[in-house]
């Protein structure tokens, strides 16, 4: 089944819905973000000059809870060394529990890829934990995983 939803950039009126989903995302990872971090993230998402952006999935008219935000993809655009166009890194992807398995996650990623094609970004990339089976099931249907391995030095 495909949940009828519209993928779009968020606006100021989406704050409550986005925050509810963001809390769900933090809970999924078992982390807490101080309120000022969430406030600042939302401010940056709404500020087009910041490199942090988002897409949200909103249920469509005709669905029993039309107008609800049921998912988001937060992404950053950053410079890279092989050309003038920025590349896109999808930082966070989340779909509300009761909207999963209905194509929302796929729709968010496909919308981001489409936006990248339109804007001329050379790539869209993301990571996931190797044990995150639902996420990997979705990602493997979009693109084969690449062979790069991440190294991380924690500084904080
Ligand atoms: C991962 C996540 C975003 C997937 O969102 P979703 O809306 O449920 O995914 P979709 O319904 O678009 O799934 C698309 C495909 O992946 C497959 N898939 C998704 N979840 C699956 C699961 N739990 N088990 C098996 N396959 C799954 C579906 O079969 C579907 O295939 P199809 O398009 O051929 O039917 C969602 O489970 C989520 O928010 N999880 C918690 C946060 C998270 O893990 N985020 C990613 C961090 S990297």
From TrEMBL:
<keyword id="KW-0012">Acyltransferase</keyword>
<dbReference type="InterPro" id="IPR000182">
    <property type="entry name" value="GNAT_dom"/>
</dbReference>
<protein>
    <submittedName>
        <fullName>GCN5-related N-acetyltransferase</fullName>
    </submittedName>
</protein>
<dbReference type="Pfam" id="PF00583">
    <property type="entry name" value="Acetyltransf_1"/>
</dbReference>
<keyword id="KW-0808">Transferase</keyword>
<dbReference type="InterPro" id="IPR016181">
    <property type="entry name" value="Acyl_CoA_acyltransferase"/>
</dbReference>
<dbReference type="GO" id="GO:0008080">
    <property type="term" value="F:N-acetyltransferase activity"/>
</dbReference>
<feature type="domain" description="N-acetyltransferase">
    <location>
        <begin position="5"/>
        <end position="156"/>
    </location>
</feature>
<dbReference type="InterPro" id="IPR051016">
    <property type="entry name" value="Diverse_Substrate_AcTransf"/>
</dbReference>
